[in-house]
Amino acid sequence: MLIPCSRAEAGFADPGIRLAWSPPGCMVWDEHGGTYVLRVENLQVAAGAAPEQPSGFHLEIPLTSGNLGRDLEEFAAQQQLPLAPPAALELAEPVILAACHLPGQNLFIFAEEPTLTARRRGEILEIAVSGVFKTRRVPCQATDLVVHLTRAAMARLVALVVSLARAGL
Fold first, then answer.
1. What is the pLDDT of residue 119?
2. Which residues of 57-91 are buried (b: 16+ CB within 10 A; e: fewer)?
3. pLDDT tens by residue, 96-138
4. pLDDT in tens, 58-93
5. How many alpha carbons lie under 13 Å from residue 80 in its C-beta half-sphere?
6. How many contiguous H segments (helices) and E segments (strands) does the chain have?
7. Domain spans, the chain
8. How much is the pTM?
9. How far apart (Å, rounded) are the C-alpha atoms in residues 58 and 54?
10. Beta carbons of 129 and 56 less than 8 angstroms apart
11. CA distances (Å), 23 to each of 41, 44, 150, 167, in order?
């Protein structure tokens, strides 16, 4: 499923790389073999200094975009994800894997068991993924970032976004 995304960037103190993406665009929310995936493609290595903040991803979803709530309800139904009302307006979830592929440098930057946080900032849902990122040299074909979630974590994320989108901010 394509989800509107108004901001997508990643920064890694080691190896000193910043990635940015020119909106408007979409991120992909999908399921592969029982693992749920958030993916943003077409990132570019950005000019400027490496981030001083902790390494990770920063994504933004405009909550007032089109039929976001309805579209996510349909996605949840197709994936048989339960949409229980969220316990809070913020979410912190463990992530299976978060990674970036950088083909120009043959880099795979990844964190096993990072944390995804999601919180409302006005009319935007801000998603941040932080953890201890490592680097490996491997051939890759596209510059992207991916986040792998369990079924339960994806269900809670979808429920939060649906709730916030339906709230008519």
1. 95
2. bbbbbbbebeebbebbbebbeebebebeebeeeeb
3. 999 999 888 899 999 998 999 999 999 999 999 999 999 999 9
4. 999 999 888 899 999 999 999 999 999 888 889 999
5. 1
6. 2, 14
7. 2-166
8. 0.91
9. 11
10. yes
11. 12, 12, 28, 25
The residue among 82, 75, 110 whose CA lies nearest residue 96 is: 110
Structure tokens at 82: 């339960």
Reported as a pLDDT band with limits 50, 70 and 90, residue 47 is low
CA distance 64 to 45: 29
Which two structure tokens, joined as six digits, stand for 86? 């969220």
Does 56 score more than 70 pLDDT?
yes
Report d(CA 139, CA 146) in Å as an integer: 16
What one-character-per-residue DSSP string does 65-127 give?
STTHHHHHHHHHHHHT---PPPSSSEEEEE-SEEEEEEGGGTEEEEEES-EEEEEEETTEEEE
